[in-house]
Design brief:
Two copies of one chain form a homodimer. With 480 residues, the first copy, chain A, is an alpha/beta fold. The first copy, chain A, is 42% helix and 15% strand. In chain A, the strands form four sheets. Chain A has a six-stranded mixed sheet with strand order 8-10-9-11-12-13, sandwiched between helices. A five-stranded parallel sheet of chain A has the order 2-1-5-6-7, with helices on both faces. A four-stranded parallel sheet of chain A has the order 14-15-16-17, with helices on both faces. In chain A, strand 16, helix 17 and strand 17 form a beta-alpha-beta unit.
C-alpha cells in the first residue's frame, strides 16, 4: 500500500478502498435475476469473483441473487467501504447523502446524465452532488463512468476481463473507450494491475489516480486517457517525477475536439500549446488513438531500452521492405547498409535467384521453403552487425497459406521465440494482417504466446515503427 | 479494346495479348504433377480456368497435367500469343531468344536473380535480355515479377483470387506486395479488372500499363505501386490527362528507401521534390502503404464526390467521439455544431440519462438497447442538417457481444443499408476492430454485404478519415 495519501479529512489511503474494498453495497440493484446477472453490479461482482461482502440495496427486495437485500444503505448493519450507485440521476443526490451520512469511504456514481448533457437540469444535479460531498469524508468516482477494474481486488466493470493481474495501470476519463482499450490490450496478452474510468470527476480525478499509480509497487507502466484537468501544476509535477513510463492520450486538443470534451465529461480541454510543452518537459509519451496506446504498451512491455535508431529490417516481399524503409525514415529511424561480413554470411544461406536479398531490408524465408533454421540464423547475423541497434521482422501469414505450408503457426512461434533468445539485440515482429479468419485466429494465438516470452508483435509496419521510435525517444530523454 | 497502342514495330494492341491471350506456353513446366499443381503456371492456368490453348514446354516430358508437352517453344506447331518462362536465370536468355524467333507477342519472365541482386552476374544477365528483345517485336513483362491477373481473361498468378471481374486496374512493380494488396482488397469486396506485377521492367513498364488503363473502358479506378520510372514526362502527361481517379504509392522516396528500391527492382527512385510536384499538378492521390491504398479504393468506390469538409460523426463512446473529432481536424475535416432543430429532433429519440449526446459527435444506440430504428432515424436527422456535408458512423461490434445482443450482424447490415438508401448525404462506416474471432468474421461478412450496396466500411477512424479527406481533395482539384 503506497504511503502518504490522505483523504479530505487527513485519513490515509482511501485509495486502498477504491481498489481493494472489503465490502461493497450496490444501490439500485435489480430484483430481476436475469437483468442483474446480465448488466447489474451485484451480478458482476459475483461473476467476477469479488471475495468481500456484498450488500444489494433495493427498497422492495428481500434478496437479490441469493444475497440479503436492504431497503437503504443506512440499514446495512455493518460499515461499508465502497458503494456503487446505479439509480436514476434524480435519485443520485439522495443516495450520496445517505452514503456520506453512513461514513462510506468511496462512492462510485455509475449513473450518467449530469453536466455532460449540457442541460440546465444535468448541470444543477452535478452541482448538488459537489455540495453533498463537501459535508463529509466520502470520496467519489464519477458520475458518468464505468468505475474500477482491479483483478487482484476482485473488482471489474466487465466480467469478461482477465482475472489475471499485470503491471499496467490505466486511468481513463472515458468508459466505453476505456473498455475497448482493455479488450484490445488483453486480447494481445497485456495484463492490468488496475484500471479506472472516472468520468465527470467531481471529486477523484486523473491526477489523484496518477499519484497513486506513480507510487504503487504493482504498477510498472501507466496509461492515461485524459479529457481535462483542474490541477495542472500537481499533474505536471507528478509526471515529471515519475520513474515509470507514462503513455498519455490527451483528447480534445483540436478546436471541435474541445467542444466534444465539454459534452462528454464536461471538462476543460486546455490548449494544445500547453500540452505540447508538458509532453516535452515530462517525457510522457503522447499517443493520438486508443489503438496507438495499445501498440505503445506492447513496445514498452517487450522491448528493453534501445539506445540508437538503426534498424535491421527482415521480411518477405521486396516492395513491402521498401515501404517499411520509407516509414522508418519518416518516423526518424535509420535503415543502414549492412557490413560486408554480414552480407557474406547472408549470401551463404540465401539462394541468389530466389527473389531474396542480402541488403537491408533483408529477405529470408521463414518456413515457406522449409528453411526456418535459415531464418533464425539470418536474424542473428543481422542482429550481430555493429551498424544495427535492433531488428524488426515482418511476416505475412497469408503467404504460408498460399504455399500450403503445414503447421506454420507453431513453426513461426517457435522460430520467433528461439530468435529472441539467441539474438544479441532487441527484436520485434510485425504480423501483416489479412482478411482470412484462420489467419486472424492464428495470429492472435501466436501474439499471446510471443508476448509471454517477451517477443512484441505488432499489427502493421506503421504502428510498430511509430511505437518503437517513441520508445527510443522516451529512453533517450530519460537518460539525458 | 483501346485503340492507338502500338508495339515496337508499329503493330497495334499488343496489350490485348497481355491480358487476353488466346494461347499460352509455359517454359519450364514441371513434370512433377504435385509440384506443378501447387506452384507451377500450367497448374495455375488450369485451376483458374484459362480457356485458351496451353503448351507446357519441358525437354524431358511428353505430357504435363494431361496436356501434350513440347521440348521447346520452337516445336509448338501453332503460333503462341503469350509465354511464361520460369526456367533458372542462366537459361532465361536462351528461352527469350527462342520466343523472339518464334514471333511470340508477349513474354512474362517470372524468374528472378537479375539486376535486383546487385551482383555482376545478375546485371550482365539482365543486359543480355535487353539486347535480345531489341532484335524482334516480342514484348516482355519482368523479369522478377508475378505477371498478370485478369479474371475475364482467365489469367491469374494466384488461383485463389476471385474469378469475378471488377473495375479496378492495379499496376504494380512489386509481386509479393502486389499479391498482398489484392488479397486485402478482394477480402473487403473490391474487384479488379486487371492487375500486373512487372518487376524489373526491362521492356513494359508502369507508364505502358498506365496508358492502357487510362483508355481501357473496363477500368474506372487505377492503382499504381511504383518504385521507379524511366519516361517521367510521358507518365506525367498521362496522369494529368486521366479522367479516372489514380491512387499512387510511390515507394522509395526516403534516402534509405531509394537504396532499397535499387536492390528490389533495380530502379531509380527519383527525388521527393519531383514526386511531390507531380502529385500536386496531376491530382493523383498519394498513399504511403498498401493498407492505405485499400482504404482509398474503398472510399473511391463507395462514396460520391463530396464537395465540402463538414462531417457529422455518429457513434457510441463519448471518448471515441472526442478522439475521432481530433483526427478529423488533423486531417482537414470540420466537425461543426448541429442546428438547434437537429438537436431537438435527436433529443426526441435519445434518453437524457443514457450516456448519449445530441451534439456532434452524436451518440445513438444501434440495437444495443433494441433501438435500431432510432439509429437509422438519428442518422437521417444528422444527414439532413444543412451544416453537414456527409456522415461518418463508428460501431464497435464487441459492444454487442458485451450486451449479449442476438443477431447483431444482420441487424447492423440491414440498418446500415437502410440508412444509406434513405439518407440525403454521403455516408461511410467504421467498424472498430477487436481481438475476437467471431467479431472479425462477422465484420468481414458485413463489410462485403455493405460494399455490394455501396456502403463503404473502414477498419479504423484514422484510416477512414484520411481516405475521405483525400477523396474530397481529389474531387475539389478535379472540379477546379
Amino acid at each position: 500500500m503506497p504511503v502518504g495519501e490522505l483523504d479530505r479529512e487527513g485519513n490515509s489511503s482511501f485509495m486502498e478502498d477504491v481498489f481493494y474494498p472489503k465490502s461493497i453495497a450496490v444501490i439500485g440493484a435489480s430484483s430481476d435475476r436475469e437483468k442483474e446477472m446480465k448488466s447489474g453490479w451485484v451480478g458482476r461482482l459475483l461473476q467476477f469473483g469479488f471475495k468481500g461482502r456484498i450488500y444489494p440495496i433495493n427498497p422492495k427486495a428481500k434478496e437479490i441473487l441469493g444475497l440479503e437485500a436492504y431497503p437503504s444503505i443506512e440499514e446495512v448493519p455493518d460499515s461499508v467501504d465502497y458503494v456503487i450507485t446505479v439509480v436514476p440521476r434524480h435519485l443520485v443526490p439522495r443516495s450520496l447523502e445517505e452514503c456520506v451520512s453512513k461514513g462510506v469511504r468511496v462512492v462510485h456514481i455509475y449513473t450518467a446524465g449530469f453536466s455532460e448533457t449540457g442541460t440546465k437540469e444535468g448541470i444543477q444535479l452535478q452541482e448538488e452532488l459537489g455540495k453533498i460531498i463537501h459535508t463529509g469524508k466520502t470520496r467519489v468516482i464519477g458520475p458518468n463512468c464505468m468505475g474500477v477494474y482491479c483483478p487482484s481486488g476482485g473488482l471489474s466493470f466487465d466480467i469478461r476481463f482477465p482475472k489475471e493481474s499485470g503491471s499496467i495501470t490505466f486511468i481513463s476519463q472515458t468508459g466505453v473507450g476505456g473498455r475497448r482499450l482493455i479488450n484490445l490490450a488483453t486480447g494481445r496478452g497485456l495484463r492490468f494491475s488496475k484500471a479506472v474510468s472516472y468520468g465527470n470527476a467531481i471529486d477523484l480525478n486523473g491526477t489523484d489516480f496518477l499519484e497513486y499509480a506513480v507510487s504503487d509497487p504493482e504498477t510498472r507502466l501507466i496509461l492515461l486517457y485524459l479529457e481535462g484537468l483542474t490541477d495542472g501544476r500537481r499533474f505536471f509535477n507528478l509526471l515529471r517525477g515519475c520513474k515509470k513510463p507514462v503513455v498519455l492520450l490527451k483528447a480534445g486538443l483540436s478546436e471541435s475536439g474541445s467542444g466534444a470534451v465539454a459534452s462528454h465529461t464536461a471538462s476543460l480541454a486546455g490548449s494544445r500549446r500547453v500540452w505540447e510543452a508538458l509532453f516535452k518537459q515530462t517525457g510522457a509519451i503522447s499517443v493520438d488513438t486508443l489503438e496507438e496506446a495499445v501498440e505503445q504498451m506492447v513496445a514498452l512491455q517487450t522491448l528493453p531500452p534501445i539506445k540508437s535508431r538503426r534498424v535491421g529490417l527482415v521480411g518477405r516481399g521486396g516492395g513491402i521492405g521498401v515501404v517499411a524503409t520509407d516509414i522508418c525514415e519518416r518516423e526518424g529511424l535509420k535503415v543502414p547498409q549492412l557490413e560486408q561480413e554480414t552480407k557474406n554470411g547472408l549470401a551463404g544461406i540465401i539462394a541468389a535467384d530466389s527473389g531474396s536479398t542480402i541488403r537491408n531490408p533483408v529477405e529470408i524465408g521463414l518456413g515457406i521453403t522449409g528453411v526456418s533454421e535459415h531464418y533464425v540464423a539470418g536474424l542473428k547475423m543481422v542482429a550481430a552487425d555493429p551498424k544495427i541497434d535492433f531488428v524488426l521482422t515482418f511476416l505475412n501469414p497469408e503467404d504460408y497459406l498460399h504455399y500450403g505450408v503445414k503447421g506454420w503457426a507453431e513453426d513461426i512461434s517457435k522460430g520467433l521465440v528461439k530468435a529472441k533468445k539467441t539474438m544479441s539485440k532487441p527484436f520485434a515482429v510485425v504480423f501483416l494482417q489479412g482478411q482470412n479468419v484462420d489467419v486472424f485466429q492464428s495470429i492472435l494465438q501466436i501474439q499471446r504466446e510471443c508476448l509471454k516470452e517477451g517477443v512484441g508483435c505488432f499489427p502493421s509496419l506503421d504502428s510498430a515503427i511509430k511505437a518503437i521510435s517513441k520508445l527510443i525517444t522516451y529512453y533517450q530523454n530519460r537518460d539525458e
